[in-house]
Amino acid sequence: MSLKKALLAATVLSLPVAAQAQPITGLYIGGGVGANYREDGGATVSVGRTTVGVGTGSVRTNWGYTALGSIGWGFGNGLRVELEGNYRNNAVRRVGGASTSGGTIHQYGAMANALFDFNFLNLNAGGVGIVPYVGAGVGYGWNDWRNVNGRSGSTQVRTDDRDGQFAYQGIAGVAFGLDAMVPGLALTAEYRFYGTLDPELGTAIRVNGATVAAGTYKPTNYNHSILAGVRYAFNAPRPAPVVAAPVAAAPAPARTYLVFFDWDRADLTDRARQIIAEAATNARAVSATRIEVSGHADRTGTAQYNQRLSVRRAEAVAAELVRRGIARNEITIQGFGFDRPLVPTAMGVREPQNRRVEIVLR
User: Which of 55, 154, 174, 218 has the most CB atoms at less than 10 Å from its CB?
Assistant: First the structure.
C-alpha cells in the first residue's frame, strides 16, 4: 500500500462517530421531490357489459414530476415504519392512434411503508454517513384523469374521471447522514416503483361534439420515480460536548538564580539587575522566609583575594535585593572564593561561569 493510500485509509478510519451510520430511534419526518415516468400500457375498453377492446387504446404520457411527504418511527435496529402521502403528475402525449391528444393524469396516494436501513455497513465519505435502505409499501391510490382525449377527424374519445384502487410500491434508496453538522438530518436519493390495480374510468366517444357512446376505460398503471429528499430524526444522538483541554498550570517560580560578573569585578551589569529583580519578585510569590546569597570567584589570583571578591559580589547582590523591596534581615550573605567552582578548572584559568553569585529562595 502506498503512503498516500495509507494516509487516506487512516483518515477514513479516524472519522468521528457522528459520521458512522446511526440507527433511527423514534419519530422522524421526511419528504422528497423528483421525476416520474408512467409506463405506456394497454387498457380494457367496455361499453355497457360488452368488452370492445383488450390491451388497446394505450395512453402515452411525458415524463412528469412527483412529490411525497412521510412521518415515521424507527426502532433503533434499522427497521422503520412510516405513513406516506404522495402525488404524481404526467401530461398526456398520445391517446391510441389519435391525430391529436391532450389532458393530464394526476395520481394521489396514501401508503403504509416498512423499510430497513443497512446501518451495519458503516459507510462514510468526508464525514458523511452513507446508509443504503430498501422498503415496500401498500395503500390506496387515486387516478384522476382530467380531459384526457384523443381526436381523429370528427371523432373524439374523452376521459374525465377519477377512481381509487389498491396501491403498492417498492423502494430502494440511500441516505447521506449529516449528523456531524445537524444531528438527525440526512439527504436521501431514491428509486420507487409505484402501481395500482387498474382504475375504472368513465369514457365517452363523441362525434361532432355529440356523445354517441359511453363506457369504461381500465388502463394499466405502473410508475417509475426518481427522487431527492431530506429526512430529520428527532431523537438522533447528539455528539458529546467538546471538553476544553485543561489549562496548564503556570510553572512554579524558580528558586535558584545565578548572577554573573566580569573578571575581577563586583559591580552589577544590566542583565544582572534583571535577574535580581526577578528573584525579588518571585521571593514574594513563593513566600520565601530566607534568601541565601553566595558569592564565588574563578581560579585566578590568590585564595585570600578571591574570598574577599566573592563577598563583595554577594554584598552587591544583597544591596540590589534590598533596593527591590526585600528586607535585609531576610538575607544571609556568604563568600566561598574559588572553592566551589561551577565549572572545574585548573588554577589561573579565567572561567566566566565561576564568577557568580547564587541566589537561593528558602
Answer: 218
